[in-house]
Amino acid sequence: MSNAALVVGPLLRYVDTTRATVWVETDQPCEVEVLGCTARTWTVHGHHFALVIIEGLQPGSQTPYTVRLDADQVWPEPDSRFPPSVMRTFRDDETFRLAFGSCRRSAPFDDDGLKRFGADALAALAERMATAPYEEWPDAMFLGGDQVYADTPSDALAARLTVAHENLPASWDEVRKEIGNFEEYTWLYADSWTPEPIRWLFSTVPTCMLLDDHDLRDDWNTSQQWRDWITNEPWWPDRVRGAFGSYWIYQHLGNLSPAELENDSTWAMVRSDISDAERSAELDAFAWRSDSEPDSARWSFHRDFGNEHLGIRMLAVDARCSRRLDPQDRGIVDHAERAWLEEKASTPAPGQNFDHLLVATTLPFLMAQGIHHLEGWNEAVAGGAWGRRFQRVGEKIRRDVDLEHWAAFRSSFGIVVDMLAKISRSEHTPATILMLAGDVHCSYTARATLPGVDPQEPAIHQLTMSPFRNPLEKSIRVANRAMKTRAVRWLTHRMAKSAGVADVDIDWEIDNGPWFENGVMTVVISGREATLEVDHAYVDNGQQLLRRTATLPLTGPPQPPAPRRLDRLRKLRRR
């Protein structure tokens, strides 16, 4: 009898009409079996991983599955209160549900953790799904950054890190409670992904993921000045190797389809017949190149969620690793990523058109207009528009206030606007173009229009959901709301104009939100129609639950804003 056990997982990752992939970490080398398909683990830095490719599934099927290690069943766990894990291939009824959000801090589900961080929206989603029919489950889920917080881990993990780092030199004091290398990243993922509701959710809903700054460190790649500072820190090389190596294994690998895996050289390397030491060294080298030579790796990916009847493409665009940081030539994506984005946005799968195009990035494309103008002003001033003295001030403000979204990289912003206009005027116009994002620790929707384009087809929306679990401080909430006011919009617009910033060829208004509670959004597609379900998490007698805040049509004529239901509920509680 084998003694092998699961450490993390199983995670259901890629799913289409007939295929799926399941990812696991185990405590020793073994053979992993799922639905009769097997894979041998491979070892990196003493940790053992496998990605099992399952083929021959029936379209539109729901298949409960088990995980066996060396023929012994280890999943589902016998005492689990959740239903069996299920693989659900895409339906052929022209419907699809995609849940998404970002920013999830790891903290216990005890009274103190719930008081400090609130209800975990993903745990609450798992609780809802456990008693709901399959038709109400998400068909897939996009995790839009900060899946883990390397710079602010849980209290328990921070205490463990303090002990592990007690003999480090004084120059490491700033990061003594932070994740420092690959080994510690494995602790971080286990801490975040093994609570029972999260583990079951990830075993049942196919997930795709993009990294953002906290997966490595806050403000990562904000500016060249930031990189010049960070790359001279003695702890940075180990952090980079650990971050990118673990990200490739825990997050990115499952983003790829079986066909894409066949052409992935790193995937071939980890499964090759080399020693564990050689494999670890190769992955470390790949990780280091990923940061120092951004064009050596691509983290962007795409998913085709539709079928021959309905074309649904999601483009997940890396807005963090491939930035151009030269103050005179900033870009949130480099030239290679731009070319990839434009190609994937204009080339549907064979035999399909785009009925719905989802463009997912970790950072919102359209924000409150006050913030948009402020970021444009700051980029120009940091680039020298107001002279050298203000250039230094602008760079400091950029870092201190996190002015690093799409609007702070105006050349990239303009490229995307041009792309949206081109798609909107194409022969086969999508019903929707949905911009999905997180990062900003609040949720909102914004409907956009382009000059000379029918505002109803395509219907263009910014859909921003954050956080899953990491509520924003009250003072920052007030500042965030102020950015929507006419006075602030007027002031920041004048500032941007004074720095030579041109207006953009797209118009938008935040029509719902901002909401600041932990939550999750779900895009619901039915043919060429789409709606948005907005859910926020709350605690009731120690249980983590979801409450429907709004159901919003995404197609058809513009709608009035949804009522601020959560505000009314809070007022009632105060009474």
UniProtKB/TrEMBL annotation:
Chain intervals for the UniProt region annotation (Disordered): 551-575
InterPro entries tied to this protein: DUF7800, Metallo-depent_PP-like, PhoD-like_MPP, PhoD-like_sf
DUF7800 domain ranges (all copies): 4-86
Pfam families noted in UniProt: DUF7800, PhoD
Protein name per UniProt: Alkaline phosphatase D family protein
Signal peptide: none
Domain PhoD-like phosphatase metallophosphatase: 136-459
Species assigned in the record: Antrihabitans stalagmiti
